[in-house]
Amino acid sequence: MAVPTGAGGGGARGEIKWGGGALGAAVAEPRREHGPRRVAAATAAAAAAAAAAVGAAGAGGAGTGCRHLVPLRPAALPAGPALPPRHLPRRFPLGRGQRRLPDGGRLAPGRQGPVRLGHLRPPPGHAAGGRPAGARGRRRGQRQLQQPVPRRRGAAAPGGLALPLLAVLGPAAAQRDGAAQPRRTGALRAAAGPPAGAGRRARGHPLPLGPAAGPAGRLRRLGQPRPAPALPRLRRAVLPALRRAGALLADHGQPLRGGLARLRHGAAAARRAGGPAPGLPGGAPPAAAIRYDGVNVFGYTVWSLLDGFEWHRGYSIRRGLFYVDFQSHDKKLMPKSSVLFYQKLIEKNGFPPLPENQPIEGIFPCGFAWGIVDNYIQVDTTPAQFLDSSVYVWDVHQTKKLIKVDGLHAPKRKRHCVDFAAIRLQISLLQEMHVTHFHFSLKWSLILPLGNLSLINHTLVHYYQCFASELLRVNITPVVALWQPMIENQELPVSLAKYGAWENTETVHAFVEYARFCFTSLGDHVKFWITMNEPPVKNLTYTAGHNLLKAHAKVWHLYDKEFRTSQKGKISIALQADWVEPACPFSRNDQEVADRILEFDIGWLAEPIFGNGDYPEVMRAWLHRINGADLYNFHLPYFSEDEKKLIQGSFDFFALSHYTTTLVGSEKEDAVKYDHYLEVQMINDITWLHSPSRAAVVPWGLRKLLNWVKSKYGNVPIYVMANGIDDDQNMVHDKLRVYYIQTYINEALKAYTLDGVNLQGYFVYSFNDKTAPKYGLYSYIANQYEPKPSLKHYREIIGNNGFPGPETPELLCPEEVALCPECRFFRTRKSLLAFISFIFVAFIVTIFFITYYSKRVERRYK
Hints:
Layout: E1 17-21, H1 36-58, E2 99-100, E3 106-107, H2 135-145, H3 165-169, H4 171-176, H5 187-192, H6 200-203, H7 231-245, H8 260-272, H9 285-293, E4 299-303, E5 322-324, E6 333-335, H10 337-348, E7 362-363, E8 369-374, E9 390-394, E10 402-409, H11 421-433, E11 437-441, H12 444-447, H13 458-473, E12 477-483, H14 494-498, H15 505-522, E13 528-533, H16 542-562, H17 564-567, E14 570-576, E15 579-582, H18 588-610, H19 617-628, H20 641-647, E16 654-657, E17 661-665, E18 674-675, E19 680-683, E20 689-690, E21 696-697, H21 700-713, E22 718-722, H22 735-753, E23 759-765, E24 778-781, E25 784-787, H23 789-800, E26 802-803, H24 824-827, H25 830-861
Parallel strand pairs: 1-4, 8-11, 8-23, 11-12, 12-13, 13-14, 14-16, 15-17, 16-22, 22-23
Antiparallel strand pairs: 2-3, 5-6, 7-26, 9-10, 17-19, 18-19, 20-21, 24-25
């Protein structure tokens, strides 16, 4: 069918027609200020301004495109007049003095304008509230609203087809504007749609879109004043604006959101049936159907232009591109963010690939840390049979077993690392990955069960020593965290967890003594320390976070003063940092919400250490506001000047764990996902890729986070200490994790090469499914470890040191000298080494003198 278009048409392959649809409501100039024409006049005035705004946007005019940038909030819009079903007439026969219009409508007595009082049924598949419904809902709506007036030949067909605005205004308005009135059997019929019965959709849509269509021109409340004439303003604003924008008014009879996959499949089915798919509601389905399925989609129309009358709901915020303030005299319009999005979509003629979203080629610098994470390594301290000092006799005649001989014991020997079989297996698995660093955490509650040095688990400490030394033997650098919180007791000794945990200042002193013991016991093997790994900011009180910061600072200064010179290591804190994206990037309110979440989630612990030594001003201002409103009573402690100096600068690098990105808004839409404390609405973007646990895969969030850290805290060295996604354990090929690792590392490369971020390392989470189910690069089934495809992909990226291309210059990195784990024996026994050296020198001197005097004696006797 030929669809008239405006000057701004065009689309993908030069065929797509872009348009905006709305329920038409043309009005005459009323004489009294009450009745249904008041509603029609208000809707017409709002439509005029909205069409002008859309036309200006389509013509390149400036616009905010976000509802938050206008003074009236959407929540303040009142519900408009809505009549109960008993006020609706059962049918629409011709009343006294009324006459039938040529298109099936009726003209009120004494009126010469095109005021339409016709059909009142909702679109097919929609209940009275504007929502899709089944056959039962449609029958219920039909019983309430009854059938429309039978249409004559040439009447406006019910088809939800694209209509030019000229037909919406009506022939009379077109004549007054100087336009030629189309003949009913010619252009107007083509514009209005096919005749009744021409196709399934035409038969199922009883709501016409001809002159003054829509329920707004038919419902009224007695006694309401009649507004000023709105039709001249409608003619002057709507027609030129829509001609500039090239928009079409149409009504698909479906919501704008949802059913994307079904729409695309429906388009493919239409192609198989041999017909075109004239315009699909939604977002990407038309483009996907054109590109992948070869569907002949020649148009796309958005429903609808502005919020209007929604049946029994009255005037409310619904599917329009514009909000309408029905309480104001001039019916103020507030553009939604979808206006700007649709404008950009038309300008770009689809979804062209953006340069910032394209993968880049390049490599990371020499010495870049490629690592893997395992929160807690597998610890098996079962003693080997060689450590048993008992003597056994083998009964070869009767029991065929070993019988222990009482009273006899063999000499005991020292423990060796080869006695721990579990270490050899884990080291071999790590060697297969070709990683350079391995990050794991110590168990404070097991090393010091009582929280002090009165009871030490020496067996476990020796196990950690052996594990770290074996890592160094295969050229893997151990990265060790002193404390990582867990669900039970926060991984604190029971004596500390029982008495307030981090809210008790005794925990700070206990943590410092525990760190001193670990530096002394493991410092010769470990050169990369994390004081606290991913403190749970969402579960910490402000007092606990206050003490946690002081504990970190004291441990950092302890290492800096007493161990850095001899051990030559580095130490810092690792924070969980997921990116927060505003739902509307052009909205100041949404941006303020996103900044507030970042300060509460990251800045709370990062600002005192990497910033000015105190908490973020955003936190203090927000807590002061909500405490002043008597809603909450949260006290954010203050640091003394000495504590600020102690905490500020207590870092060697910025370590962060990043997993996903969250979308937030400032308007309350879903009470379940609304945070009343921070006044933030969590939003789920259904267009994002999600894991089985509903974690969003948003690679560009990592790049934005790295740039945020750089802009806020300077060019500090950054390590991505954990980055991973869960996947279905039943899947043989973890394609989601392969895509996740590929895209996130590429975004990290963009941050390093394009943005100048001082990125020093990247760690994948996690090592295996045994310790972190669904996250591991090794599957664990029946006591067997099997590598997943994601492991092989990560190993390939490590081997290439990134994503080299044909034009990437070759980077020659000097080989690092392997450390000598066995040299620890001599470094810790310097006095013994000096004594042995003295004995060796004395022995050499003695041999020399003996030889010398022996030769003199021989010559004397000769």
